[in-house]
Amino acid sequence: MFSFAWMVMSDADPGGLTFGVAFVALATAASLKLTPVREWQVRIPGALRYAAYFAHQSVAGGVDVARRVLSPSMPIDPDIVRYRMRLEPRQARVLFTDTVSLLPGTLSAGIDDTHITVHVLDRGLPVAESLADVEDRVADVYGITLPPADHTLEACALTEGGGS
To answer: Is the pLDDT assigned to residue 127 strictly greater than 80?
Structure first.
């Protein structure tokens, strides 16, 4: 990028090549020194896989809620649970939390340093597995390697002993 900027400023004049090489080297060194190190970086292949998953889950979530609302028996067995997140970077956790609300029958209800609180429409759904899957997909976006999921959920104080 600095090379391109130098070529534009000097009209690609070969007479200024020595000065241009020095300019590009110093500008690159300063940029690398002054730019904060990020613990994550978006990976294009992972982002594309996530986008396809996101689109599919958006439709599936809408269809599931519509089916439940239009069903005469209204098949719901709600609960509020907590899931221990394996993701560390804040940006990845935010994307994870936002995505959870698109899964069929789930809604992100809160987040803290280690857990996400999730409202589920049906406690019979494989919520822990779905959350672990979303977490893996978000990790793929950022190129993060996660430890294996334990697929356990913690009941919230509001729902111990039954649904809401």
So the answer is: yes
pTM of the model: 0.69
- Are 119 and 151 part of one and the same domain? yes
The torsion angles phi and psi of 36, rounded to 5 degrees, stand at: -65, 145
Which is more confident, 35 or 50? 50
Average pLDDT for 75-97: 90
The rounded distance, in Å, linking the Cα atoms of 95 and 116 is 12
What's the domain count of the chain?
A: 2
DSSP string over 56-77: HHHHHHHHHHHHHHHSTT---B
Q: Could you give phi then psi for residue 49, rounded to 5 degrees?
A: -65, -40
- Domain span at residue 143? 44-155
